[in-house]
Design a protein that fits this description.
Alpha-Beta Plaits, seven-stranded parallel beta sheet, alpha/beta, Rossmann fold, 20 strands
Length: about 500
């Protein structure tokens, strides 16, 4: 493992890294920084959170000449949020350098940004639209910009900025060094790299582990024509506190917003055809919890951190597993359990298997709340059951009322004969969930700590099962097993009704 001290960075930059607590570079930093320091053009394919800002930022800062007051480097970003984040990161890494880093973006007074540029800027971090505006006003000249970074290039494509990006690149010196970073590499981005980069080195980082542990994932297969109607049903059943619904295209987002509004749902759209001011307004309303549903293209998947998002719904299957992880990562925040549901048509069914393999996760078939438990097992019941087990050292006595209230089946003698009465329990899992009789017997034996003689019958049907146990064991069985997992599936137990 290479350390930052071995990368050949200047003492002033290294001092800032030491103060920031940076010791070991991330994989994208370890591979990209030496190539950029050597003067090569670099294509970096990596997701948000892999440390790519430092991967291009550190070589950029090393490249600068503090004595030259012209704009020597530019970083193009797709959104104002990312523009601000990158500027803050660069300024922290440049703490001991005598350079000026200026951020220019839409939604802020252009005159104040013009004033900052007149005062001198070595680095300009900009959104595409605002840079074009400043260039047209002759407030920003790029003839000395010999280090150019395109950050989140695929998102610029989604926003429709690629033509403007090309215009900006044509205004920069032909001998520039260019770095392009993108989570995915669709054909238009590949074409951009071929046309405006010189013999680029490609650095591709695939995360070894993807953080989806706190997210319950499911898929819902529906006919293509019924997607919108089934989505409305899904939202009514799931009752999200807040949800982001992802579509693949801007047109699709607009159409779906209208459809959901016509059904009386509280929804706003967020996509690239909206003005910066409109996008900001939607984002603020959503973050302030004034909008319940957000229909969005992948523009919202990066950098969107909203505490109240309980559900992410992929209305359109994402183009890649990386985008899937970006999307569903918008839920399950702040230690909360999130739900991610992907709607697929029969023709797209195989995509679920691909995502499962790439992300090393399991995506089960969606089930209604009646067939699953929304939350973790109930702690109080579990603690009480464990305490009873510890205290007795033997099977605790059941509730005397269990016999009368159970709706169970007796031997028909009515005289308390030798053959014991049984209580029938309903289990919400069956053959369809991959569960067989031996699985249930194991759960009763190991999970509920029932002796074999207390289990009288186990019947596994297609969608659910029945087990019959001693009446005095019925309550503890429900307590111990209701809400636990069997073969990765949450199970629900209750006393069966006649």
């Amino acid at each position: 493992m290479t350390t930052f001290k071995e990368l050949g960075l200047s003492p002033a930059i290294q001092q800032a890294l030491d103060e920031l607590g940076y010791e070991d570079p991330t994989p994208i930093q370890e591979e990209a920084i030496p190539e950029l320091l050597a003067g090569h053009d670099v294509i970096g394919q990596a997701q948000t959170g892999t440390g790519k800002t430092a991967a291009f930022g550190l070589p950029l800062l090393q490249y600068l000449d503090p004595a030259d007051d012209e704009v020597q480097a530019i970083v193009l970003t797709p959104t104002r949020e990312l523009c601000i984040q990158v500027t803050q990161a660069l300024r922290s890494m440049a703490e001991h350098l005598d350079i000026e880093i200026v951020a220019v973006f839409g939604g802020a007074p252009i005159r104040s940004q013009q004033s900052q540029l007149r005062s001198g800027a070595h680095v300009v971090v900009a959104t595409v639209g605002r840079m074009m505006d400043l260039m047209s006003r002759r407030s920003l000249v790029l003839t000395a910009a010999r280090f150019v970074v395109l950050d989140e290039a695929d998102e610029m494509l989604d926003l429709g900025f690629i033509e403007d990006v090309e215009k900006i690149l044509r205004m920069c010196p032909s001998g520039r060094q260019t770095a392009l970073f993108s989570a995915t590499m669709p054909p238009p981005i590949q074409k951009l790299a071929e046309g405006y980069m010189y013999d680029p080195v490609t650095v591709r980082i695939t995360p070894k582990t993807l953080t989806v542990d706190a997210i319950q994932q499911a898929f819902l297969e529906v006919p293509a024509r019924e997607k919108a109607a089934r989505l409305v049903e899904l939202l009514k059943i799931e009752e999200p506190e807040q949800a982001i619904i992802f579509t693949r295209t801007k047109i699709g987002a607009s159409r779906l917003e209208k459809t959901l509004k016509d059904k009386g749902l509280d929804v706003k759209a967020l996509h690239g055809d909206m003005s910066q001011g409109s996008r900001d307004g939607v984002m603020i309303a959503f973050k302030d919890h004034r909008v319940k549903l957000l229909v969005a293209t992948d523009i919202a998947a990066r950098g969107l951190d909203v505490e109240h998002v309980t559900h992410v719904i992929n209305y359109d299957v994402p183009n890649s597993s990386e985008i899937y992880v970006h999307r569903i990562g918008r839920t399950g925040r702040v230690g909360r359990t999130g739900r991610a549901i992907t709607i697929v048509t029969p023709a797209e069914r195989d995509e679920i298997g691909r995502i499962e393999r790439d992300v090393n996760t399991t995506i089960g078939e969606w089930e209604s709340p009646e067939d699953r438990l929304e939350h973790a097992p109930r702690p109080r019941r579990r603690e009480r059951g464990e305490r009873r087990r510890r205290e007795a050292g033997e099977e605790p006595a059941g509730d005397p009322a269990a016999d009368g209230a159970s709706g169970g089946e007796s031997d028909g003698t009515g005289d308390g004969g030798k053959k014991p009465a049984t209580t029938k329990l309903f289990v919400n899992r069956g053959e369809r969930s991959g569960i067989d009789e031996e699985d249930l017997r194991w759960a009763l034996r190991e999970g509920a700590v029932l002796p074999d003689e207390a289990v009288h019958d186990v019947r596994v049907l297609h969608r659910f099962s029945f087990v019959e146990v001693d009446p005095d064991q019925a309550e503890r069985t429900v307590e111990f097993l209701d809400g636990t997992k069997l073969k990765g599936k949450e199970i629900r137990l209750e006393v069966a009704k006649n």
